[in-house]
Design goal:
This protein is an alpha+beta fold. The protein has helices spanning 19-72, 121-139, and strands at residues 75-76, 80-82, 87-89, 96-99, 103-105, 116-118. The strands form two sheets. The chain has a four-stranded mixed beta sheet. The chain has a two-stranded antiparallel ribbon with strand order 2-5.
């Protein structure tokens, strides 16, 4: 994202100048103030928009980091009560899953997609590719 550059003043009056030069420089300086103000306001809006984007991205990264860490530190699944967001690894396939809601689990997460979200994008991609291959084979 490009940020507006604030223009420099072409002439800055100096009291040590000759009166006629000083007067001309003051006029030039005053004529450039509106453009300076407009560019400053535009730059402030762009910086604020960029700050909002950074804050949003930081929140996304923090969420992804927390999800990753909980997946890395997941416990082995066992039948029992789970809270939304709990992560476990399945003893049947070794993959990590996250609970979609608070519930009592009696089925291995690998066989229970209603209650568990698969945290393994490679496994999800494989499943999707298999599904698409079956659709393709059925239609051609």
């Amino acid at each position: 994202m490009a940020i507006t550059t604030i223009p420099s003043f072409t002439k800055v009056p100096n009291r040590s100048q000759a009166p006629s030069t000083f007067s001309d420089d003051v006029d030039t300086y005053h004529s450039e103030i509106p453009a300076f103000i407009d560019a400053s306001n535009q730059q402030a809006q762009e910086v604020n928009a960029a700050a909002e984007q950074v804050a949003t991205q930081a929140a996304t990264v923090a969420e992804a980091s927390a999800a990753f860490e909980s997946g890395v530190n997941a416990d082995r699944w066992a039948a029992g009560d789970y809270s939304e967001g709990d992560a476990v690894w399945s003893p049947s396939d070794g993959l990590t899953y996250r609970a979609k809601a608070d519930f009592t689990s009696a089925i291995d997460p690998a066989a229970d997609p209603v209650n568990w979200h698969n945290l393994n994008p490679v496994a999800q991609a494989k499943d999707e590719m298999t599904r698409l291959a079956l659709v393709f084979a059925a239609n051609f």
